[in-house]
Amino acid sequence: MTGDSVAQLSVAVEAVLGAFTLQASLEVGGEPLALVGPNGSGKTSLLLTILGLRRPERGRIVLCDEVLFDAALAIDRPTEERHLAYLPQDFGLFPHLSVIDNVVFALACRSQRASAKQRRDEAMTWLERFGIGRLASRNTAQLSGGERQRIALARALASSPKALLLDEPTASLDVEARVEVRAFLAESIRSLGLPTILVTHDAKDVEALASRVAVLEKGRVAGCGLLGDIRQNPPTSFASKLLESSRVAGASEIAGPFCTGDACHN
Amino acid sequence: MAHARSRRLYDTAMVGLGGILLLFLVLPFVALVLDGGPSAILRGLGCSLTWPALRLSLGTTLISVVLVVVGGTPLAWWLARSRWRSARWLEILLQLPVVIPPAVGGIALLLAFGRRGLFGGALERLGWTPAFSAVAVVMAQVFVSAPFYLQAAVQAFGRLDPNLLAVARSLGASPPRLLFRVALPLARPWLIGGAAMSWARALGEFGATLMFAGNMTGKTQTLPLAIYTALELDIHTAQALSLLLVSFAFALLLLLRRFNRDPEVARRLATP
Looking at the complex, does the CB of residue B187 fall below 8 Å from at least one CB of chain A? Predict the structure, then answer.
């Protein structure tokens, strides 16, 4: 894969959830990976585990040669030191801060030495890069879904992350905003080239944002591979139903490595 | 038809019941304000008990509420986030003073820290005898009022959107930054509400103070104790002191309403 040599997030974890054990192994390079599966299949738990908000019983998580978690070596880096950008479904903007102060917050977390003025200028640069400089002094509650999404991404990138984790990025938007946000996200994810994991229920999100798909079923990776392969040969009935609608659209995919079982490697 | 009639009867009965309760609650206040007229009340305020008690009440409750907030906030933050089973038990045990009669709390404090108490000897050797001093007043107030703030703060922190905290941490927020820049500003309206409740409780503290700190004018005699003392001298003095206390309570109530009506509060609530 082209992007894999640039940056890599590798996850192999085992964690006891309520009804079953999450046992997942994923490798993410420069190509965005969509994590799909029915409700309760462990998608969000896996995301929280990578973030360090849930501690797995066994396993290892490595990001760009840095070990974030290793049960055997008793390494467990706290969330704030993992350099992962996390975008939750509702974008997680701080309601007590203005748009620009949301971005300044991220900058202040990473660079203690910069002056307040420097941080504001840098935050403004981020906002302008996403075409939302005019919103700088606004209250985040008054903004549209599309604008909120942009702020969230600008803020996430201001923290200089090494990987991107998105949880249902379009689920809380109305239909029109979805189209806009999807196009914007697709463009951003492509140009960033960061390892990206995207949890979604929406075939259109998978189609537009991801090149690879991992199908989760009862905590296990039932199948993982290029979007085109998964679509042609869905490992579970859920994947078949989810990607059915987009079957006609995605003929441009090139055939690539494909695997089933617990592991997914390129 | 019969259904509508019984429904109407039920409504009427409840309105009546509510009215009776309202009268029962309001009439004493009417009497408190009107009885004797302004001149009797003004004369009461001029009593020698008033100003020392007012000064002591304001001073000690202010110290108490600061102690409770400064100590209670980090503790509540930890309690709200800890997954330990022992944290749940600690939370329940810390609520005990709410259900214990204050007089019992006062006796317990006396038996623990009084001159002849369990730890009184050790404290005395260190040159410190808290019982029957202003320090004892503060101790009694903290004892009875801390749980009110703690409960409000634990609930406030527990209601914060976990996604916001997760995002803050993913952006690199250290634990202190997470508390001071995210959790505290978001929970502020409820923390202030809790502190006001706690202050009101400390201001009204009587039983524990009487048992543990005594009733010495200018030294340990807070407003509620002064009211008790004044009652034996002249009812209008007691009335005047009571009005003073009521006006403070009313001011607090207004403050609470001000914060609960804050439109920001709705936005700061956890979103499902």
Answer: no
Taking 70 as the threshold, does the pLDDT of residue A255 lie above it? no
Nearest-CA residue of chain B relative to A160? B171
Topology of domain B48-268 in CATH is MetI-like fold (1.10.3720)
Pairing of strands A58-63, A163-167: unpaired
The answer to whether the CB atoms of A109 and B171 lie below 8 A apart is yes
Give which of A69, A95, A77, A92 is closest to A10, Cα–Cα: A69
**CA-wise closest residue to B246 among B29, B27, B12:** B29
Identity of the residue in B167, B171, B172 whose CB atom sits nearest the CB atom of A88: B167
Residue B185, CA atoms < 13 Å, CB-side half-sphere: 14
Kindly report the nearest CA distance between residue A253 and chain B, in angstroms.
33
Residue A251: band (very low, low, confident or very high) from pLDDT cuts 50, 70, 90: very low
Cα separation of A88 and A78, whole Å?
A: 18
Task: Identify the band that residue B166 occupies on the pLDDT scale cut at 50, 70 and 90.
Answer: very high
Which chain B residue's Cα is nearest to A82?
B170
**What are the residue ranges of CATH 3.40.50.300 in chain A?**
9-83+162-212+236-266
The mean of the pLDDT values for chain B is: 89
CB-based contact A110 B174, cutoff 8 Å: no
Model confidence at A40, pLDDT cuts 50, 70, 90, reads confident
Domain topology for A9-83+162-212+236-266? Rossmann fold (3.40.50)
CA distance, residue A53 to nearest chain B CA (Å)? 8
Dist. CA B94–CA B99, nearest whole Å: 11
Interface of B with A in 233-272 (CB under 8 A): 264, 267-268, 271
Listed by start position, the domains of chain B span 1-34, 48-268
Mean pLDDT calculated for residue range B157-178: 94
